[in-house]
Specification:
Blueprint: E1 2-5, H1 12-20, E2 27-31, H2 37-51, E3 60-66, E4 72-76, E5 79-82, E6 88-92, E7 95-102, E8 105-108, E9 116-124, E10 127-138, E11 141-148, H3 160-169, H4 174-177, E12 199-201, E13 208-220, E14 223-244, E15 247-262, H5 265-271, E16 283-293, E17 296-304
Parallel strand pairs: 1-11, 12-15
Antiparallel strand pairs: 2-3, 3-4, 5-6, 6-7, 7-8, 9-10, 10-11, 13-14, 13-16, 14-15, 16-17
Length: about 325
């Protein structure tokens, strides 16, 4: 039997074609009818194995993210997320394909006989990451697709080994470790449930303006800690804390789409004044200048807030 493995990031030639095009919207779905025949045949087999249906011509498998100038930024492919009711799905274009975890085994709710699902570690783009490997045979060929799994906690990313242990010992906990899928109709906004993206100190943000859609706080032995959900329009690299061989280290990562900003002391004073920060009432973080103090990076920044919680002891600034 022949085998064909689909590259979720496309091959260099087809990716270059998408990069050469100009786009009118921040998110552009690539219609399945535009897929190269070799990809379309493979994806049709895999989609049929997962759903029992043919790959829809006017549906999409890939989505292009572009910047304000219409220039290609990145490519989204099918990805594993969790749902509000603690289920698992493969988000395939604008469709969610349910995945069932039962008896230590993975299956698709409408999967066909012969469908094979397993957790693996695969090279996806520049990085090795855990994936849900989907395999299905059709016409004498075994087609496989590695579907990336989006971790809920970017400081403690999932691995295939962790997923395999959970699958056999505590399958209900898998969904808790996977990021909740956002509302596809609100692309570019946070889901409002869990903070998304790697944790980045404000001093490591590039100069510019960042839309803040959430603020979370928690009391700790070191005082009140704040975490800001920021939307990233231009990818950048920054150090973030990760466990490497059991030890916490600063690791350079690529940051795109979202990040969780750890504010400096100046920003904490603003956040202590109880600003209202929601997707409907976003704040804007402006990083104006970088500096250094005692060998540590610093940033001069301003948080512009449109509303604050009203109480009897505070100014009403709506004037």
């Amino acid at each position: 039997m022949k085998t064909f493995k689909v590259n979720p990031q496309l091959d260099d030639k087809n990716r270059a074609r998408l990069e050469a095009r100009s786009y009118q919207k921040a998110y552009t779905d690539v219609p399945n009818r535009a897929l190269p025949p070799v990809y379309k045949e493979a994806l049709t087999a895999i989609y049929t194995g997962l759903t029992g249906n043919d790959l829809p011509e006017e549906g999409s498998t890939f989505t292009v993210r572009s910047d304000a100038n219409g220039t290609f930024k990145r490519l989204y492919s099918p990805t594993v997320f969790s749902t509000e009711d603690k289920g698992l799905i493969i988000r395939w274009g604008d469709e969610d394909i349910p995945i069932t975890v039962d008896g230590g085994k993975l299956s698709a709710t409408n999967g066909q006989k012969g469908l094979k699902l397993s957790f693996k570690e695969e090279q996806v783009g520049k990085y090795t990451e855990p994936v849900l490997s989907v395999g299905f045979s059709s016409g004498g060929t075994l087609y496989t697709l590695p579907v990336p799994i989006r971790s809920a906690d970017y400081e403690n990313k999932l691995t295939s080994d962790i997923l395999d242990v959970l699958l056999s010992e505590n399958p209900e906990a898998i969904a808790e470790q996977v990021a909740v899928a956002s509302d596809p109709s609100k692309r570019g906004e946070s889901s409002g449930e869990r903070l998304q993206g790697p944790f980045v100190k404000v001093a490591h943000l590039p100069l510019g303006e960042y839309k803040i859609t959430q603020c979370r706080s928690k009391d700790s032995d070191y005082g009140m800690q704040y975490f800001l959900q920021a939307i990233v329009t231009e990818p950048f690299t920054a150090p973030t804390r990760q466990q490497v061989d059991g030890e916490w280290q600063d690791v350079e990562v690529e940051v795109s789409d979202f990040c969780v900003v750890k504010p400096n002391n100046a920003l904490k004073k603003v956040l202590a004044a109880d600003p209202e920060i929601t997707p409907d009432k976003p704040a804007f973080l402006i990083v104006k200048e970088h500096g250094e103090w005692n060998g540590f990076p610093t940033a001069k920044c301003v948080l512009k807030c449109s509303a604050f919680v009203k109480d009897d002891e505070s100014f009403d600034i709506d004037f």
